[in-house]
Write a structure and sequence with these properties.
With about 210 residues, this protein is α+β, with helices and mostly antiparallel strands. The protein has 2 domains: about 40 residues, no CATH class; about 150 residues, C8orf32 fold (Roll). Helices cover about 25% and strands about 25% of the residues. The chain has a 5-stranded antiparallel beta sheet with strand order 8-7-6-5-9, covered by helices on one side. Strand 3, helix 4 and strand 4 form a beta-alpha-beta unit. Helix 3 packs antiparallel against helix 5 and helix 4 packs across helix 5. It is globular.
Length: about 210
């Protein structure tokens, strides 16, 4: 476990013959916090800056951001969500990340580009936003690879909220989004900001 509460597993697989394989099965019991998304103001700064794939300072991004700016942060993020939802055409899964500016210029993208573009527009309006990686599924189920998804989260009303233009979800169905990783910003948030948690005692591992 890292100092910030992030849990990572590392495997060293030895003596695998050519064309051989090893199956690794991991079972984790996760708890869900009653309150999550708590984060100090200084740690929000990392979700306001420009970075790779989130070109929030590019003039083409800032122009769109200014045009969609509302009278409040809540109105602004709803305007941005609506615009991205209507502007981008779904082009199916793209293996390589291309970023917000590419999505803006091509008017197309998958879930990742949708999240990048929304996050860039939000940051251009000085609203903290981040791109998440995980799964979307409702109810008790076994997660499948096809459930994998990327989406945006925006910090407003003292919490992180799901904003997913790709799936047309604006600050709803929070419990359906199982975040596994933050793929934007410096991943040094404290553990209290995480929606799910587990302990080392909750992990079962088997190999064959």
């Amino acid at each position: 476990m890292l100092a910030d509460g992030t849990q990572r597993l590392f495997f060293t697989l030895e003596n695998i013959p050519p064309y051989g394989n090893r199956n690794v099965s991991i079972t984790v019991e996760l708890g869900q916090r009653e309150r999550y998304g708590l984060i100090s103001e200084e740690k929000l700064d990392q979700y306001l800056v420009e970075e790779r794939f989130i070109e929030s300072k590019d003039p083409r991004i800032t122009e769109i951001a200014e045009q969609r700016r509302g009278h409040s942060k809540a109105e602004t993020i709803e305007n941005l969500y609506t615009w991205v939802s209507e502007y981008l055409q779904e082009e199916g899964y793209v293996a390589r990340d291309q970023g917000a500016l590419h999505a803006l210029e091509s008017k197309a993208g998958d879930c990742t580009e949708s999240a990048y573009l929304f996050s860039a527009l939000s940051r251009a309006n000085n609203i903290p936003a981040r791109v998440m990686a995980g799964y979307v599924s409702s109810g008790n189920t076994v997660l499948r690879s096809r459930d994998y998804h990327n989406w945006a989260e925006v910090y407003i009303d003292n919490a992180w909220w799901v904003v997913d233009p790709n799936k047309k979800n604006f600050r709803e169905k929070q419990a359906d989004y199982i975040a596994m990783n933050i793929i934007s910003g410096v991943d040094n948030v404290n553990r209290e900001s995480q929606r799910f948690y587990g302990t080392s005692d909750d992990i079962e591992l088997s190999m064959n």
